[in-house]
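Structure ticket #2291
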Amino acid sequence: MADCAYCGFKGSVLFEDEKVVAALPSSPVVPGHAVVFPKQHFQIVEQAPDETVSRLFEVANKLSIAMFEGLRAQGTNLIVMDGLGAGQKAPHVAVDVVPRTNGDGLGFTWPSRKLSDEQMGLVETQIKDAMLELSVSAAPVPAADAEWKGREAGKHKEAGEPEMEGEGGEGEPKKPRRRVDPFMRQLRRLP
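Resolution: structure written out below.
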């Protein structure tokens, strides 16, 4: 994309391979602040293939280790601002890796909120149902959450719960799940 700050990046490159670039931004928040971004243009994480997202975080993790070792950082923040509501400034997926030290003056705290059990249950159900709709194959939850693992694998059904798309009956082939366009998903989020 012609007007993208990351496409055709010209600056201090720390690492580069066929998928991603790790570089020093021109206006770092602290010395050593780095950014990892895919070479291919994706505006939000949802648009990027899993292999690209995996590589982004692989390289971000190595940068974090290098900051601990090379800069004597006492911690790091790995930050993804995904979408306007999250403060994303450039329309390109990026992972900011920020080296931290005690007393560095950077604030990064959010006030926590207490949700009622009902609110927490609703949010949990909405996220789990969306994960099932997206055909997440590996269980990204702790093994203790057996109910969701069972549902995710198609082994658990509540009484009267309809068959989810893609869950064929005994001996029946599974139907493919519908692919949700990431642009449409992002548009539905706009106020």
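Closing remark: The longest helix spans residues 50-70.
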